[in-house]
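Good morning C.,

I know you're traveling, so I'll keep this short. The sequence:
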Amino acid sequence: MSRLRALTVVIAVSIVGMTAVPGSAAAPTAQRACTKAGARATIAGTKSVCVRTAKGLVWMPQGNSSGGGSQQGQQLGSANSITWSPTADGWRANGTPPVCPAPLVIEPPVDVARATSILYPGQTRGGNYKAHGGFRFDSNADNAIAVHAPMAGSVVLGARYLVSGEVQYTFDIMSPCGIMNRLGHLLVLAPRMQAIADRFPAPQENDSRTTFVSPPVPVAAGELLATQVGVTRPAPNVFLDWGVYDYRSTNASAASPVWAGQHAQDFALAGHALCWLELLPPQQKARVATLPAADPASGRTSDFCRA
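The tokens, ready to paste straight into the viewer:
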């Protein structure tokens, strides 16, 4: 799992990044219906984004995408003065961040109907503690699994590294309200994400340390991040790591001094990790509940998921 590089150095990063997002449609009309959440276009000189509202998908100016109280609207709002800084025990906002949706519901980054088993967050796998979970796709004939941004936010950290000589990618997407989604073992990236990854240090075998993305690059909820996951050498191994972290506060496990001491080295992630299985929309949650645990040793054991 990736670890924060130079974690003790406090570097402010803008949650609403300054990198421009290219338009993806030809001059639709503002406030009119659109067809794909996260699509962007310049309308009469104003950059606009397609957001989901109570009235359906509509075009709204990027700086005013409140979305009638929708999740996307709250996360793409005009809180462009908010910055977040990594500290020894997590990220902190420099002001009052926008309010996260309550209850917090997060769309899965993949089509859970294609998943065959679940990696539970907050367990030991392969001899190492993993704050993140993930999905396996053992029925796939190849590594073709589309990965989409679970929430709107900005890419603030990322990594590229080698596994058996094959390049793998990780991205951390921080929402303005303080929820971070980490997606790992991406194999083939969407062009815009590849442009970000091309700026990372040259990949080295099993060196998954993350690098700050400066300025952070905004992504929309549902935006395509990758088209293939996992590794292909020596044979296809199709899986995706997914961790969700809430930097508004520490989690329930962190309240135990013993547990916190055991995880002092990885507290910046483990102390804020959530059980994303409990945050999925009802249909996806029901599907995930039917899937077996992927790790034969730890099974469904989890420091974050309720039994």
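Safe travels,
E.
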